Every structure is written in C-alpha cells, then in structure tokens.
Amino acid sequence: MPARPKTSDAEIIDATRALLEAQGRDGFSMAEIADAVGVRTPSLFSRFASRAALLDRVELALWAALRRELEAAATPSRLIKKPLEGLSAQGRAYRAFAKANPNGYALMFDPRASQTAEGAAVRGAALAPCLPGFVALVGEDKALAAARVLTPFLHGFVSMELSQAFRLGGGIDAAFETGLDAILSGLLTWRRSP
Amino acid sequence: MPARPKTSDAEIIDATRALLEAQGRDGFSMAEIADAVGVRTPSLFSRFASRAALLDRVELALWAALRRELEAAATPSRLIKKPLEGLSAQGRAYRAFAKANPNGYALMFDPRASQTAEGAAVRGAALAPCLPGFVALVGEDKALAAARVLTPFLHGFVSMELSQAFRLGGGIDAAFETGLDAILSGLLTWRRSP
DNA sequence: ACCTGAACACCGTTCAAGT
DNA sequence: ACCTGAACACCGTTCAAGT
After folding, report:
1. Which helix (H) or strand (E) holds A69?
2. Min distance B4 CA to chain A CA atoms (Å)
3. Does B46 touch chain A (CB under 8 A)?
4. Is the pLDDT of residue A1 over 70?
5. Which residue, B194, B62, B91, B65, is CA-closest to B152?
6. Which of A179-188, B92-101, B168-177 is predicted least confidently?
C-alpha cells in the first residue's frame, strides 16, 4: 500500500528555487527545503539523487523560464521585420531576467553543473528565440557567429554587473544600452562583408 | 613563548589555490588544506576567520595574477602605438588565463565574494593595464565606455566557454577571434562619432 | 603568537521499517 | 511508491591548554 505523496517534484523544485534566490546557493539546507514542502528531509532523496541533482533540475527550470522571457520580448515576425529592435528588446529582457534572479542566474552558468544530454538540450534551446533575429540581421550563414558576439556580451555584462565589477560609476543602464547598440550596429555591417 | 610557525598565510593561500583548481570550489576541505601545509585544521582559523575569508584571499591572488598576465601581454607603449594589436593580445591573454585556471576564474566572478574595500581595489586594478589601449583607441572621454563593451565580451565568452555553453560546434578559437575583431573594429569607429 | 586535541552543531546521505 | 526516525560520516568552527 503506497504512502500518499505529500508533495511533488515540481513543488520541491519551486521551493528550492525560492530558497536559492532568498539565501544564495549555499545558504540553505535540504532540511529547509523539506520544511518548505511539508516533508522530512530523507523523503527528498527518494525523488532526487542528491542536492546537486536537485540543483541541476532547478537550473533547467531557470533556463526554461529565461526562454519564455525571450519569446515574450520579441515575436519571430518582429525579429524578421526589425531585427535591431527585436534583438535589443531581447537583450533588455535577458538583463532584466538576470537582475530579477541573481542567484539563479549564477547557478545557470556554474561550471559545476552536471553535463547530461537533457540539460544540454534545454540550455541550448534557451537562446533559440533570438535566432530569427540573427538570421535577419546578418544572414543565415553568419547567424551563429553573430550570436557568439552578442550573447557573450549580454552574459558578460550582467555577470559583471551582478558581481559588482563595474565600480567606476557612470550610469550602468546607459553603459548597457551603449554596448548593445555598438555591437548590434557593428554586426549590421556583416551583411555584405565576408 | 611563541610556538614556531609551521607555515605562512602565503603558503596556505597557494595550497588552497592548487586544491581549488584540482578539485573545484567545494571539492576540498579545510582538513585537506591543513594537510597540504603540514598543520592541523584548527590552526588555519588563527590565520583566516573562515573558509569564506580564505577563499576571498585566494580570489584576490588570482586577480593579481591576471593583472600580471595582462601587463605581460602588451606594454603601455605598444598599446599607445598599436591599440588594436595590443588589446587583441591582452584579450587572448585574458582568455588563456581563464582556461588555465577555470575553477579559479569562476571564483573571481562568484557573487558570494565579500565586498571589502581592499578587494574592490584589487579587482578594479586588474584591468588597469588595458586602459592605455582604450584611451588610444577611442580617446580619453570614451575609454571607460569602450572598456565596458570589450571586457564584458571577454568575460562572457570565456565564462560561456568554460560552462560548455557553445554546444553548436564550429571552431571556438575562430569564434573568439571573430568576436574580438568585430568589437575592436566597431570601437574604432567611435573615434569621430559621438 | 601560533599550535594542538577534543568537542560541538550542522549537514548530506543511507537504510530499515512503516503504510 | 513514498514516507519516516534513527543513524553515519564528514565538515566548519570553537575553545581551553600547551609552548
């Protein structure tokens, strides 16, 4: 006779994500997660092999959430018609997501994440909503190369911002807009040149 | 009568840095550090307030090491005469440093670092060796803004590379060179325009 | 001033037993 | 199948005592 489930994988992942954001990656214990979902600590291990495995699932949930934000920021048709505007909007949405989930964002780029095939797929799919914009901006053959200029800038900027690396003052919002514009207009010149 | 010191702060920091690189941020214990320097675990706490404080010191040592690499990659006079070449060389040195110290590099941008005044100073000084290049490239008034385009790209690129974010194949070395060139030549157009 | 052994509280994880 | 209490090994940290 099975014991009645008191919680679910999804509820545990949500509770962990909330604790992560509130307390930081090592600011909470399995016991606190268990408390949050009304269960005793060992029960978590019948659903997740380890704390690390649970954090991996949280990370995938965050990548999926980022994907949704990017989709909401610009539709494919807008990206095709006005790639500069569309990609700028997605860039701002990307930064907003990182600033709204700083501890989660750090987890998403933590090199300790286990490299499962499913994980790689979810991570890879997260930036897919931007691809039509790159294709429209520089053409199909250069879209990947263009993505590998803009996305490192986006990640690097927000990562540095979150780790307080911009200490020389000056408007950080303005610096972000300047950088975004500079890179996008630079990519625009790729249309013709090799 | 003082007990003879068996080790030193510097030796402990070096041993911790080695363990960090070999085993990852939470792959080693205070006991292993103590073993490595020939001391018992509690002795470490008479020198460093906590594991976190010791990791902070390791982080500062890494920033200082990065600074030395950047200084070695291009002299101020070369940066002034040939800013494109000089900054490219520093960009490559930056990436090489990150790839040679992947776990250390992750620590340098870990948002958990304590924000001491000394720490901020050391971190801030690390990229100073690049400044003459930015001044030569775009002029004094735009140097900071230019740095806030290139350095996020550098950090973002190597951070994504280290967390295996470039899964769509294609030469990653070539992508780095392409991005570096695109951004530097884009910045070059700032010389005249506002 | 720096070292040590002993102790403490906490934590991730396992396991046998319950339903 | 999922839950639980009890137990285990390990870890960061404290402390009183040694020199």
Report:
1. helix A51-73
2. 36
3. no
4. no
5. B91
6. B168-177
